[in-house]
Amino acid sequence: MGMCSSAARIGSITAPYVIYLGSYNKALPYILMGSLTIASSVVNLVLPETLNRDLPETVEQMQECQGLCNGLKKRKYLEDEGRKNLPIQREVRPTQSDI
């Protein structure tokens, strides 16, 4: 929630300056907004897919998710005597796209 609030404040502070770019060249605000949109979509391509997957709930579980977190191994976590979480392999059921 804090990141969204910070991004909104930064956007509202810089918005008037983007409009002033139009005084130099009418296409500059459109070029800037278009390039920011393309850059954010490229960054979103490296986010992991979370559809029908168990999301990590603790720091230990998140440390297992390294790199791009591509989800080659689907794991389920169980409490072991309340001290630490151990990964246990889970059955992977085929989806419609696998058939």
Plain-language structure description:
The chain is α+β, with helices and mostly antiparallel strands. The chain folds into 2 domains: 2-44, no CATH class; 59-89, no CATH class. It is built from 3 helices and 2 strands. The protein has helices at 2-20, 28-44, 59-64, and strands at residues 75-80, 84-89. Strands 1-2 form a two-stranded antiparallel ribbon. The longest helix is centred in the N-terminal third of the chain and has 19 residues, at 2-20. The relative contact order is 0.08.
Roughly what fraction of the amino acids lie in strands? 5-15%
**In angstroms, what separates the terminal alpha carbons?**
39 Å
How many independent structural domains? 2
Mean pLDDT across all amino acids:
77
Largest sheet: 2 strands, antiparallel
Radius of gyration: 21 Å
What is the fold's blueprint, element by element?
Blueprint: H1 2-20, H2 28-44, H3 59-64, E1 75-80, E2 84-89
Antiparallel strand pairs: 1-2
Short description:
One of its GO terms (cellular component) is membrane. By secondary structure, this protein is an alpha+beta fold.
Annotation keywords:
99 residues, alpha+beta, two-stranded antiparallel sheet, 3 helices, 42% helix, elongated
